[in-house]
Amino acid sequence: MCMAHKSCVSEADSAAAAAALFAWGANSYGQLGLGHKEDVLLPQRLSNFCEPGCIKSVTGGGGHSAAVTGRKAKPSSLLVAKNQGKTCALYITSIGSGNVDVILQRGSPWTAGVLIIISNIRRSSLLPPFMCLVCCILLLYDCPDGGSLFVCGLNKDGQLGLGHTEDVLCFTICKPLLGCPIRQVACGWDFTIMLTVSGSVFQWGTGLASSGRRLCAGQTLPLFLTAKEPSRVMGLEDSTAVCVVAGSDHSASLTDTGELYVWGRNKHGQLASLAAFLLLPQRIDARCFQDEKVTAVWSGWTHLVAQTETGKVFTWGRADYGQLGRRLESPEGQKPHKQDSQLTFWRPQSSVSLPLCCLTGAAKISCGSEHNLAVISDKCFSWGWNEHGMCGDGTESNVWTPSPVQALQSPSRILLVGCGAGHSLALCQLPALSEPCQDVKVIYTLQADTGNPESQNGMNKERNRKERQSVTSTQSNSDRTRNEGP
214, exposed or middle or buried, with CB in 10 Å at 0-12, 13-18, 19+? Predict the structure, then answer.
């Protein structure tokens, strides 16, 4: 279902450029924040649940979304942080139906919060069977003690780090980490990975242990794969991490020297290795990135995206939904690969990191479960899984190469993008309006050659629907005028 929206801005807002949040894709639980539960195949503007210009980041889970604001804004539901009677500078506002009640002890000495949620408690029909709630993590930072970690949710594999396997229904402080200065937390399917301010990496949760034992028979599993409390990841002691990411069954860590380490299950080649499972972190050879340093990394459920120092963007991992932004060269997904110029063997092409020239210089990137968004020259590009219209091209067909989201074309300027498992969010800077209450129009026209007939048909249907509505509205006004008389 394709939907459009127009809004009217006030005279005060018309003097300067305004920001607006758009959402599209899967909406079974109302995660788009549009007031209904129908999928939306084209970006639709949300009503201002807070001041859009305050939004600093947007993200989504399996059936919900969250927006983080950076200054005083009008919050709607999930969390309003207060400390000693003063409202904090950072809010988290839920716009989905799968809200999580945040229960904290009164008087907790914290000043800001970042919420990381993977998915809904209820299994969603729009996701593969293995995708449901993993856990919820609330990271509170800027605290006198250096930060605290609050956790709740599914805990059958000890992924909450509490030392037991009982599910937790309310946010509970992770006592083993009290006093530990935390920089970042990421959640996998049944494990959690954490980065400290000093650059150390910890992991916990036993979900990967069974795969590790089966695929690495006879080898001893490291403690961090079997721990129910935070355990330091072995093999990274001589490096300083600056970022960690998690997929459904893999982890990755980026160092301050631009090296990328990966470990976990390698079913879809997401570890850029021939091994079926990596028990310990393994550095991806710099040659995979054309001998450039990696400056940023993102992860979907089974694929990874990395950007290097010159702005090049590389993708590798699972490719059957188009999530790599390129098609495999052969039906078997295999191609010959040489190692040390001596041994030639067959290597899954999906495990070979290759650059996507069209994404060079991308300012922002976000990965959903199997789709992606990127900001290039202030424009939004999408590619990958599109069953619920999360690529925003008006169709439900997978998008195999990064393509501009035509509905968000100029003069709108993309500020932020965020992905849920099957939906997308984008914060746009709209052009300044010269007249009060002038309509802000979202452009749905396509360029002459889009290379996607289905996308063109989707846009045409939307345009025809709007034209029919306009004609009907005009006729209704005329009939009303005739009936009311002079």
Answer: exposed
